[in-house]
Automatic annotation (TrEMBL):
<dbReference type="Pfam" id="PF02153">
    <property type="entry name" value="PDH_N"/>
</dbReference>
<feature type="domain" description="Prephenate/arogenate dehydrogenase">
    <location>
        <begin position="2"/>
        <end position="290"/>
    </location>
</feature>
<dbReference type="InterPro" id="IPR003099">
    <property type="entry name" value="Prephen_DH"/>
</dbReference>
<dbReference type="Pfam" id="PF01842">
    <property type="entry name" value="ACT"/>
</dbReference>
<dbReference type="GO" id="GO:0004665">
    <property type="term" value="F:prephenate dehydrogenase (NADP+) activity"/>
</dbReference>
<comment type="pathway">
    <text>Amino-acid biosynthesis; L-tyrosine biosynthesis; (4-hydroxyphenyl)pyruvate from prephenate (NAD(+) route): step 1/1.</text>
</comment>
<keyword id="KW-0028">Amino-acid biosynthesis</keyword>
<dbReference type="InterPro" id="IPR002912">
    <property type="entry name" value="ACT_dom"/>
</dbReference>
<keyword id="KW-0560">Oxidoreductase</keyword>
<keyword id="KW-0520">NAD</keyword>
<dbReference type="GO" id="GO:0008977">
    <property type="term" value="F:prephenate dehydrogenase (NAD+) activity"/>
</dbReference>
<dbReference type="InterPro" id="IPR050812">
    <property type="entry name" value="Preph/Arog_dehydrog"/>
</dbReference>
<keyword id="KW-0057">Aromatic amino acid biosynthesis</keyword>
<dbReference type="InterPro" id="IPR046825">
    <property type="entry name" value="PDH_C"/>
</dbReference>
<feature type="domain" description="ACT">
    <location>
        <begin position="295"/>
        <end position="362"/>
    </location>
</feature>
<dbReference type="GO" id="GO:0070403">
    <property type="term" value="F:NAD+ binding"/>
</dbReference>
<dbReference type="InterPro" id="IPR045865">
    <property type="entry name" value="ACT-like_dom_sf"/>
</dbReference>
Length: 362
């Protein structure tokens, strides 16, 4: 029996719990210092054991997930390593910043157990166990930031466990993680909040602002509704990176001031063009959706009806396609079609059938 102990069974901790709860060979223990939360966890059937006792939660645990706010992670690691942990146990976290916890855990020189930082790149503006889902991590990247000296076999053991999340595991240096995630997650949260608060100010004297706010405003500001305490900790923890990124942001915004002052329509259009081109290349990994990592690639000649022919072949064989994307299609160049399936078997069957007429790559 593999025992997984989870501290902080909220959105992320609860979603981790649901990836293992009820799976043969796994027991999931959830910890909360609050007896009412413990009752809720049992009532919602998210964990097998729920307790306010740290000792009980970690007793015999093979893996410990710390899913509490970033500001509490170091303290939790310090408390945990004073407890009798199972030899070889792996402690990991899911915090949105990685440098400080990776470095402070390494500095503890823990013996007999291992710490490996982790961060699933999936989430939501919602919080609490009510928002948890076993599908949350499907197709998302899940970053691991092992400190130098962590045996690769131990990292591989954690990566193998995390397969149940259906996320794609990647190893990244912790500081590099904070630079990158600062730009693609933390800065966008700041911008969303600042924008909402700017409009909130105008709305105070004219409620039409709120009433007319439509798709564009909603799209860019969803994350402004994120949990304040979670984001307080993330932003304070990554402040050095963020201060640099906000300076760069000011440069980008100043560019628009300049373009507008000069009524430079072509310059503005160019900004949209280059942004749209980059954005269209973002990997399509919709979190929480049951899309798939089982992809095959098919070279397709550029002639009308070709995609219909391919999907008909798959439909006739009753193979479910979960996603389809044309990667390259220009008049003079044959296109490549990426077909995604929910499991390897479907991908193999599709590949076998399509190979009879098309060049297929896996
Ligand atoms: N929300 C996201 O999109 C997201 C994505 C990836 C990683 N993370 C990280 O996951 C972690 C948890 O965030 P979440 O979104 O699940 O938030 P959440 O609020 O849903 O869950 C936080 C959990 O920590 C517990 N907690 C809070 N304060 C506590 C305290 N003082 N003592 C003990 N327990 C306490 C809460 O009861 C709750 O169970 C954070 O470190 C966050 O940075 C969040
Ligand atoms: O989709 C959202 O709502 C999120 O905020 C998820 C998101 C992100 O910014 O992409 C937020 C924090 C994380 O640490 C990882 C993912």
């Amino acid at each position: 029996m593999t025992k997984i102990a989870i501290f902080g069974v909220g959105l992320i901790g609860g979603s981790i719990a649901l990836c293992y709860k009820g799976k043969p060979g796994f027991t999931v223990a959830g910890h909360s210092p609050n007896p009412r939360s413990v009752e809720k966890l049992l009532h919602r059937d998210v964990v097998d054991i729920a307790t306010t006792s740290m000792e009980e939660a970690v007793e015999g645990a093979d893996y410990i997930f710390l899913c509490v706010p970033v500001g509490m992670l170091e303290d939790y690691v310090k408390q945990l390593v004073k407890l009798p942990l199972k030899p070889g146990c792996i402690i990991t976290d899911v915090g949105s910043t990685k440098a400080s916890i990776t470095e402070s855990a390494a500095a503890l020189n823990i013996e007999g157990v291992h710490f490996i930082g982790g961060h699933p790149m999936a989430g939501s503006e919602r919080h609490g166990v009510e928002a948890a889902s076993s599908h949350l991590f499907e197709n998302a990247f899940y970053v691991l930031t092992p400190a130098a000296g962590t045996p690769q076999a131990v990292v591989d053991r954690l990566a193998a466990l995390l397969k149940s999340t259906k996320a794609q595991i990647v190893q990244v240096d912790a500081r590099e993680h904070d630079d990158i995630v600062g730009a693609i997650s933390h800065l966008p949260h700041i911008i969303a909040v600042a924008l909402v608060n700017q409009v909130r100010g105008y709305n105070a004297s004219n409620p039409l602002y709120q009433n007319l706010a439509a798709g564009g405003f909603r799209d860019i500001t969803r994350i402004a509704s994120s949990e304040p305490m979670i984001w307080r900790d993330i932003l304070v923890n990554n402040r050095e990176v963020l201060l640099r990124l906000i300076k760069d942001w000011n440069v980008e915004i100043s560019r628009f001031i300049d373009l507008l002052e000069h009524s430079d329509g072509e310059g503005i259009a160019e900004q949209f063009r280059i942004a749209g081109e980059f954005r269209s290349q973002l990997p399509e990994r919709r979190k929480g959706m049951i899309t798939s990592l089982y992809d095959i690639y098919v070279d397709i000649p550029d002639h009308p009806g070709i995609i219909g022919q391919i999907t008909t072949v798959l439909g006739n064989a009753r193979i479910n396609l979960s996603n389809i994307q044309i990667i390259e299609s220009r008049e003079d160049v044959p296109g490549v079609l990426r077909l995604s399936f929910r499991n390897q078997e479907d991908a193999d069957r599709a590949g076998g059938l399509l190979k009879q007429e098309y060049a297929v790559h896996v």
